[in-house]
Write a structure and sequence with these properties.
globular, alpha+beta, Dna Ligase, domain 1, five-stranded mixed β-sheet
């Protein structure tokens, strides 16, 4: 009898295991399978929300079929503390896994009305955009210069809307002075900026904020982001670099940033300057000379004069050897990565390939090759002027 009971118990245990295994597989499939949304929705995640309230909201909007499976997915992935406040576009048939990735990735909100304050090298701009959830495309509603005396009515109208999202977008290569001056002109921010941050210490990126946010707090976020980016990149730096500190790497990154806007060229441009430093050559880069003239306060607006190229200043890398004393702009992540992990090359010269900056540069390992590249560029310039 006991043998029969044991046999039956074992059979029952095996059946339970198979059942539980089937439930787990079914749950996994449901978690990753297309969801029930027939149309995209704009999902609001208020500040202070948690995953429990989010899953309830998703269930009420018909974005998920099984709230319990979504909650299990949150716990299994360890994402319970990673929810980011914002306004997110959830596409039709989004799976629970996709939804969780959307609301935890952070960054700029992806739906609703957007007011973007663009801080670029050539000045500030305000863009108002509306998103059509059906097409998932943004339409530009209004655009005007930051600090303009008169603003479009569309801008004033969206300021009172609850779904309006605001962000400051820093372009790579802007100076700290340009950032501060632009922030002063954003009427949805508050507070006086105590001082211009050290050059290079602000991370180019998009920073969301709520109306009335303090300008200094926003600058602190930019600074913290750049500190983290630089520390991470420096920890993975190549061996044998001709600079000893992350601060010097940041200087190099700023030079690379100002020399090329082409992502695929940055590491190669960095290799040129690394090779020059290793050979004891002057860096001979115009952007450093320009920074020494403008102090990062706007653009020069003209070509460099011979007297300026010959004058000995801390930023004239045609005269001094080594790096200038500070960065000359705020470099982006890619430029920082290029500075700490440059390409391996024999190049020590480069010049524009064509009159279009998008075409990049021609690189050379010898002065003779470089002179040929320069001659080719001058021929293009003469042809364009005829």
């Amino acid at each position: 009898m006991w043998r029969s009971i044991a046999s039956n118990a074992l059979t029952f245990f095996i059946v339970v295991l198979f059942f539980l295994g089937g439930v787990v597989l079914w749950g996994r499939e449901q978690y990753s399978a297309p969801g029930p949304l027939a149309d995209a929705i704009c999902l609001e995640v208020p500040a202070g929300s948690n995953m429990r309230s989010l899953s309830k909201n998703l269930e009420e909007q018909g974005a998920i079929s099984y709230r319990s499976i979504f909650d299990l997915g949150v716990n299994y992935t360890g994402a319970a503390s990673q929810l980011k406040a914002g306004s997110y576009l959830v596409p039709e048939n989004a799976s629970m896994a996709q939804i969780l990735e959307i609301v935890t990735r952070g960054g700029q909100s992806t739906c609703g009305t957007q007011v973007l304050y663009i801080v670029s090298v050539n000045g500030g701009e305000v863009r108002v955009r509306e998103l059509d959830p059906a097409t998932r495309d943004y339409a530009l509603v209004a655009s005007f210069d930051l600090g303009a005396a008169e603003v479009p009515a569309e801008y004033a109208a969206v300021l009172s809307r609850a779904d309006t999202r605001y962000s400051v977008n820093l372009a790579e290569g802007v100076t700290s002075w340009q950032v501060v001056e632009s922030l002063k002109q954003i009427d949805t921010l508050a507070g006086d900026v105590a001082a211009v941050p050290a050059e290079g210490t602000l991370a180019p990126d998009a920073y969301e904020f709520t109306p009335g946010a303090d300008r200094n707090a926003l600058i602190a976020r930019m600074s913290e982001a750049q500190t983290a980016i630089l520390a991470d990149a420096w920890s993975r730096r190549a061996e044998g670099l001709p600079y000893d500190t992350p601060e010097e790497a940041l200087i190099m990154a700023s030079i690379v940033e100002k020399e090329t806007g082409i992502a695929g060229e940055r590491a190669l441009v960095a290799s040129v300057f690394v090779n020059r430093l290793n050979q004891g050559m002057p860096l001979q880069t115009d952007p450093t000379v320009i920074y020494g003239i403008t102090n990062g306060q706007g653009v020069l607006g003209r070509g460099l004069r011979q007297s300026e190229l010959q004058r000995e200043t801390p930023y004239n890398t045609y005269v001094i050897r080594g790096l200038p004393p500070t960065p000359i702009a705020n470099p982006g992540r890619d430029a920082i990565e290029a500075a700490v992990n440059p390409d391996q090359s024999d190049y020590i010269f480069f010049v524009a390939k064509t009159l279009d900056p998008a075409d990049g540069h021609a690189f050379a390992a010898t002065l003779s090759e470089h002179n040929d590249n320069v001659a080719a560029l001058r021929a293009l310039e003469r042809a364009a002027n005829n």
